[in-house]
């Protein structure tokens, strides 16, 4: 009887140890709880100052700050992509007509993945009309091909990922002097529920 009595509390101890182990929180668990809300200028301003804080002086960071006047109203999540573009860019027909420069675009849309870029290109058909749209991402498209296309033709809208856009700008394949609008696909979440600014590489 004493042996039986001794073996029971041991079993209990094992079971309590098992329940004490906590589940490791994943980023998708945290993001799942945060409701989708429209991005505000402050989000990007904070992100920029955090990014440059490590390797820039206080004066340089002050110069890099974007004022609120640089921002147009964000999509309040009631608009489709086409209707949002129509609202922020009412003079699109005129801008499109006057754009004759090669190696540049009037509207640059930046999103987190190639698949999302294709999705946005499809959803802007009502807005773009007959203007030319260029895919600026790495999936199945070589950077040399994109540079050749930009050199030879006139494109009005560029839709792509931060990595490829950065590479094109650094290699002088894309000039941003005639870019009037830069749109960040801020609120969209991928399969892991990450927004563009939740991805460390971005």
TrEMBL record:
Gene Ontology annotations for the cellular component aspect, listed alphabetically: 90S preribosome; nucleus
SUPFAM superfamilies referenced in this protein's UniProt entry, alphabetically: P-loop containing nucleoside triphosphate hydrolases (SSF52540)
Annotated segments matching region Disordered: 1-21
Signal peptide: none
Alphabetical list of Pfam families matching this protein: CMS1 (PF14617)
Residue stretches spanning the membrane: none
Protein's UniProt name: CMS1 protein
Organism: Oreotrochilus melanogaster
Lineage: Eukaryota, Metazoa, Chordata, Craniata, Vertebrata
